[in-house]
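Hey, resending since the last one bounced:
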Amino acid sequence: MDYKFNQNSLIGDRWIGIQYQPFVVAEMSGNHNRSLDKALALVDAAARAGAHAVKTQTYTPDTITLDIAQREFIISDPESLWNGRSLYELYSEAYTPWEWHEPIFKRCKKLGLIYFSTPFDATAVDFLETLEVPCYKIASFENIDLPLIRKVAATGKPLIVSTGMATLEELRETVDTVYREGTRDLILLKCTSAYPAKAENANLLTLPHMRELFQCHVGLSDHTLGTEVAVASVALGATVIEKHLKLDLESEGVDSVFSVKPAELRELVTRTENAWRALGSVKYGPTEAEKKSLPFRRSLYVVKDIKKGEQLTNENVRSIRPGYGLPPKFLNDVLGKRVSRDVKRGTPLKWDLTS
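The structure tokens again:
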């Protein structure tokens, strides 16, 4: 399919694109610890840290799994943060009650933050439409749920999709589905669905490949510790950075291990913006800031007193700083020429001094 997604996308009042500051999203997830007050405090913290948006997740335990505490409904992975817990139990702890969405979004609006959510089924999409969210996010575990993606894309709103675990063929099916529904604002987030993820598994070189292949914006859903991977992603074209946020307390929600504190989020916002500013454009020759340094380049100078008529040699002419003489490339051209007048040591060599 010949994709023609928009080169710049508008989410709320912010443009998304390579020429704009990276769009930093604070993911609330389950770090509210089943407290609306904490959820609102997370919004406040995101605003103070300089994030541009806050994202929630919209599901209930019953819309995402079944109330079965055996077999494949139990997480059996010794390395998992949630080993031994049933899916239903985990999601019962982590979910954001739907009646909280409106006060959370109102707080976001009051603080100038863009708000949106990840729906996990069709009923969540219908609910979020009543709250007039400006865009949607599809989680990695749902990026193969084409009926859900079709439902979200049919809203016509910008769509952010995490690509964790997706094969290239699966991702192509997802993008095709979005495109066929008429959505022209798509952002694919490189994501490693491990909690926490290791930097060596980030595979950030996928970013420019995805952007070229699907002709859309790319970004990062970051589950690594720290900010380094997010900063590196900007250098490879990431326009959206999503990071889980927790409060400054040590005991947080189910995702606290791979979440950042407000001070770290502030650092991420600053460092990713600096990385973006450093990209600049394709540029050769001196920048405006460099022009004042031009006089201190090397050039040809007379380094010994020379009498009129004497030859220029390697003994009395050298390439040194500053740069008021002839460029060093002319050294072989002037050697052997005679000077037209007496020349003092420290004189920049010019053509009019030779004969």
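The CA atoms of residues 160 and 170 lie 16 Å apart.

Sorry for the duplicate.
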